[in-house]
Amino acid sequence: MNTKHVNIYELVNLFGNEKQQNHVKKYGKFKSKDIREAVFTTAKVKYNDVKHLGRGKGFLLIGKKDKNISRKSLLHYENCGNKEQCPYKKDLRTLLLQYLVNHRHSTITLKTLAHEMGVISREMQKNSSIFGTEERQEYFRILCKENSRFSENDYALYWECILKETKRITDELDRILKQLNEEGIVKYDSCYIGVNSDKEYDEIDESLVPIIHQKQIELQSKYEVTPQDVIFNLSKDNVKSYNREYYSYLRELGYDRIYQAKKINLLFTKELLQEDLNKTIPLYIIKNTIIEFASQKAKNRENTFHEKNVVPRVNHRLYKQFGGVLKKEYYKLLPEGFNTPAENIFGYEGLNILTNDTIISLKYSRLYADEYKEKITYLLK
Question: Which of 79, 119, 121, 328 sits most deeply, having the most CB atoms within 10 A of its CB?
Answer without folding.
Answer: 119
